[in-house]
Design brief:
The protein is α/β, with parallel strands linked by helices. 52% of the residues lie in helices and 10% in strands.
């Protein structure tokens, strides 16, 4: 059964977000080590732990789950978006950044709120200058552009996802449509956002294939509307036993080979 539309996830499918976050943490923690006798890796682990705990305690947590926003995006996003919940996040995140880093320092025996605030803002700056893509991202998009309708479907706050696209400006022009969960009101894996995509781009489930790295969002959500999907499993992760992808590949290059056979 042929397809005319390919729907791509953004983070850790086209953009190597995990590497970007890791790099920003490493640079920020290495800077902290120039000011205090602190092990950068230990500080990173401590801040990650504190950030998760804080994030889950905010009144906006259920909303972030609905939209698909993780704790580490909260550490550098502004969330200056229209909904009331995003506006609440906008007010929360400056203090969240400071507290996550301050509590991380405190866990290692350093009580320094001023440094915590400085590190929180430094992480924001480091994340903005650390965009990474996979080495085959543009080559594969070059080969697909013009042959298929290309759609970008990403979970997250519009302000943050658009910022990611601004600091990697080559990506957006490949896509005929860009759909962000925060604009729609629900994120993957909710079936409604996939139905919204199909209506917006005038396709049926049989016309398209969903490509993403996350079994629990990209693959589960597309399967809920009967759309075929491709799990990009670069890290050779074991299946979760709950969600079964239509296809599995280990790179975008392998995806291209698969699409050429469909």
């Amino acid at each position: 059964m042929s397809i005319n539309t390919i729907i791509f996830d953004l983070d850790d499918t086209l953009l190597w977000d995990k590497k970007s976050v890791k790099t920003a943490f490493e640079k920020t923690c290495e800077y902290a080590a120039t000011l205090h006798n602190v092990n950068p890796a230990e500080l990173e682990d401590a801040v990650l732990k504190e950030a998760r705990a804080l994030y889950e305690g905010y009144e906006t947590y259920d909303y972030t789950v609905l939209i698909g926003i993780n704790p580490f995006e909260g550490l550098w996003g502004t969330f200056d978006d229209p909904t009331d919940s995003f506006q609440k996040m906008k007010n929360i995140v400056p203090g969240y950044r400071t507290e996550a880093w301050t509590k991380g320092l405190l866990a290692l025996g350093m009580d320094d709120t001023q440094l915590g605030a400085e590190l929180g803002e430094r992480f924001v700056a480091e994340r903005k200058v650390s965009p990474f893509l996979y080495e085959d991202t543009f080559d594969v998009l070059d080969k697909l552009k013009g042959k298929y309708q290309l759609v970008l479907l990403t979970n997250g706050a519009p302000s943050l996802q658009n910022l990611k696209l601004e600091i990697t400006p080559e990506i957006a022009p490949y896509f005929d449509h860009i759909i962000i969960s925060g604009d729609f009101g629900k994120g993957k894996p909710d079936a409604s956002i996939f139905e919204h995509v199909m209506e917006k781009v005038s396709i049926t489930a049989d016309d398209a294939i969903m490509v993403g790295d996350n079994l629990n969002t990209d693959i589960l959500g597309s399967s809920r509307v009967g759309m075929r999907n491709v799990w990009i499993n670069r890290e050779n992760n074991a299946p979760n036993g709950v969600v079964t992808p239509t296809y599995e590949v280990d790179s975008l290059t392998a995806l291209l080979e698969l699409v050429n056979k469909l």
